[in-house]
Amino acid sequence: MARRTGPSLRGLVGGVRFTGGVAELRANGLKVGLVYDYEFAGIEREFRLEAERYKLDPTFYVEGSELTVRMDIGRGRLEATGAIWGEPIADGRIHDGLIVKGGNLSWVKEAAAPPQNKQHRRTAV
């Protein structure tokens, strides 16, 4: 796991805490990387994501830029805005350990499938 810096959110009461396999990192509407095998903890406007491994695209990632972490959960998606802590390597390869901290959690619910216009035939009995 990534080296911890600062206070942990482990003592958190309320909020959310979960682990995940893969989450997407986005900046300015573009996918800039992925995190793998992560722990997420957040409450109100504070969160911390610790990933075992990560990959950043050098073409789109700008060091110090604000990121949105997208985590698919069931029929929805949790989005969290923050920044990477430390000095990440952006070379398109997988590296060990990454921490993202920030706030502004939002839940995006997947829209229900639109009703289909099917014509039902009535049959005489």
Q: Profile the largest sheet.
A: 6 strands, antiparallel, barrel
Shape type: globular
Strand sequence of the main sheet, in spatial order? Answer: 1-2-3-6-5-4
Percent helix range: under 10%
Approximate strand percentage? over 45%
Q: Cα-atom Rg, whole angstroms?
A: 19 Å
The number of E-state strands comes to: 6
Topology pattern, helix = H, strand = E: EEEEEE
Count of domains: 1
Number of helices: 0
Distance between the ends: 67 Å
List the helices and strands and how they pair.
Elements lengths: L15 E12 L2 E14 L2 E11 L10 E7 L2 E10 L8 E16 L16
Give a description of the structure.
- This protein is mainly β.
- It has one domain (16-109).
- The chain is 0% helix and 56% strand.
- It has no helices and six strands.
- A six-stranded antiparallel beta barrel has the order 1-2-3-6-5-4.
- Strand 5 (76-85) and strand 6 form a beta hairpin.
- It is globular.
- 24% of the residues are buried.
Summarize the structure.
By secondary structure, this protein is an all-beta fold. It is 0% helix and 56% strand.
List the main descriptive attributes of the protein structure presented here.
125 residues; mainly beta; six-stranded antiparallel barrel; 6 strands; 0% helix; globular; disordered N terminus
